[in-house]
Each structure stands twice: as C-alpha cells, then as structure tokens.
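Data availability excerpt. The first of two example chains:
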Amino acid sequence: MTENALLSDLNDRSREVFRRVVEAYLTTGEPVGSRTLTRDMSQKVSAATIRNVMQDLEHLGLLDHPHVSAGRMPTQLGLRLFVDGLMEAGPVSATDREMIDETLGHDSHDTGAMMGRVSMALSALTHGASLVLMPKQEAPLRHIEFVGLAPDRALVVLVFADGRVENRVFTPPPGHTASSMREAANFLNAMAEGRTLADLRGRIDHEVQTARRQLDDVAAALIAAGLAMWDGDANDRLIVRGRANLLADELADLDRIRTLFDDLERKRDIAEFLELAEQGEGVRIFIGSENKLFSLSGSSLVVSPYMNADRKIVGAVGVIGPTRLNYGRIVPIVDYTAQLVGRIISGRKG
C-alpha cells in the first residue's frame, strides 16, 4: 500500500493519534503511552480506545513498541508518512532568521570563510551535524605549473584569472623529469588561458590523444595525474561541523554514531551528497535507510541544493541527526539557508 493510500485510509481519530504519537516522540525521543495521549486529544476518549487505535496503526506498520509494556514510537515508514503528509513546516522563526542573516551578512566575498560560518550556524541552530558542500570554482585559468618535490611527490599550481592560486600535492608517474614537467605545463598553458577547469577537462583527453606524437608518455601521464587533483573533487569542498552534537544525544546508539563519524572522516562517497540534492529543487528528507550516505548509522539527512546565477546547482547545505529530528523546524532553516547562500553566490539581490 502506498503512503497516500495509507494516509487516506486513516479516519480522523486514527490520524490524530498517529500525529500526536509522532510529535511527542520527536520532542522527547521516548515511546508514547495511551494515557499520555488522553490528555491531549481534541475529543475525550479513553485510554483503552487509544490503545486499540495504536494497535491498528502498529498493524499497518506505522508504529512500533520496543518493549511489551512500553508505549509506541513511529517506524521509519511512519516517520516518512508524517513528514510527507502531516508535518506542518512553518516559516523560519525571527531568531533563527536573524542568526543566519548575521552569519552570511559580512565578508561574503570570501566564500570559504562564509561557508564555514554557514556550517557552524546550521549546527548550532539545529543541534545536529551540518554538511556544507562549497561551490566549484569556475573562474578562468591564467597559468598552470608543475613543481617537483621528490621522486614520488609533485606540486601542481593553478593560477586563476581572479587572482586566486591553488596548490595541490600529488603523486606523479614514475620516470618524470623536470623536462617532462615543463613539457606538460607548456602543453596545458597553450590551451588553458581563458578556460575554466571544466572547459579544460572537456578538451584534455582529445588533445592528449591527438598530440601523442608530440608528447612522451610520461608528460601525458603527468597531465592526467595533475588535473585529476581537481577532477570532481567534492571531498575538499565538504565542510562538516557539529559531530559532538550527535554524541550528546542520550539516546544515541554509539556504535552507529561511530560508523557515521568514520564515514564523515573518510568522506566516503561524498559525491553522493550533491547527487542527493540534485534530484530535485528544494529540501529533501532522507530517513534512516533511505539515506544512501549514512544508512548504516540510522540517521536522517535534511538537504537542499543552492544555485548560481545561471540556475545551475553548484553546492548543497544539509543537517544530519537522529531520525527523531525536529523536521518541522529544521526543514525551513535548511531551505532558507540554501536560498540565501544561492543569492550571495550568484550575486542576486532580494
């Protein structure tokens, strides 16, 4: 049965019991008993009636109970049904909006510093771990240079038209020499000026193939290895803050949280973070095993992409935490932050 069908099959009383169980669980993290609900229902009903409704909801797979004598708590399916069909996400509160605006309101020309502040603010506001994927730098290139550091280490230097300089250490191919480095740099510089890295990558394979007779194999391998340092490099674009917030949760499964930390430290499959956000505009919510990135930790991820002036998705902001996140508050915070970052990145006003 689909979620919509499940929701439509619930009568008013079942829907209210379900909503109140979920809302209480998201607030306290504890299973909810029938006696607790008798005080909150819009119509006066007995605890026995509520227990019967809870049993029906459990049979539908929306609620579960951890112990025989305990109350009920929502399942992953129940949380998904609540988020999609019953949750009321209001506007960002004035206090939250003020903190976000203040975070983004100064030194916005320094993208790295600004994104660091965004990540800290999201973590502080939501009491979860924040994930911020910085935009790719697409300024045109001015110059490329390779510098040998050791037999197994070299440095590639990229100078951009906006004055920014990026350095990256990489492992060059065996047998490289100062001469092969100069040859590789000359080859790249002949086609690089005025082009972005994305543009350059689009041509490099074709050009290397057609210029094989002009380049020795070492120089060709050097070009590939050097540019690979920036190829789809989402790992160094990811900012993570607030890991300690997850451990502070008294109900946290520490083994699962350690698994999450391991994933964050390795930034494993982090390109999927942006892929998740790119699957549609606006905020997306991944609960428990729906979360491809951190499914083993049983966490939830609230993520939204942001766009540049060309309406192209260039990064994302998100919050990760236990499945009992306060979705109704966190969703508008993530949405507002993503939209504001997008306006600043693209130079749009208003």
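And the second chain:
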Amino acid sequence: MTQGTVAPRQASAPTVAKQGRSIAISDDSVATSVALLNRDGKLWIEHGGERYLLRRTANNRLILTK
C-alpha cells in the first residue's frame, strides 16, 4: 500500500466524499493516518453531537481529544 491511500477489504463499499477527498468505507476498511489527517496533522471528527480532534503529536503518536 502506498502512503496516503485507503485499502478497502470488501469489493462493494459506500464512498464518503467531502472537500475533494473520498474514502471507501466497509466493515474491514483500513485508512492510513496520512490519508485522514490534514497537512497540519489534524482531523476534526463529529460524533454524537460532539466534536473531537484527532491529531498527530511531535513524537508521531495520535491523540484524540474532546
């Protein structure tokens, strides 16, 4: 798999597209953090009416905060 790609594991999967990105989603989808995070290493996630921030740290770890 190349850097910044998503590897769906099922042939038929719905696609989510927003702001020029599309990611195939299925029960066994795998997405690299490079494909999900923006150039600043951040991704805002909305879940249950709340917003969460997934970000890459200076030590190349991921942190999810509310």
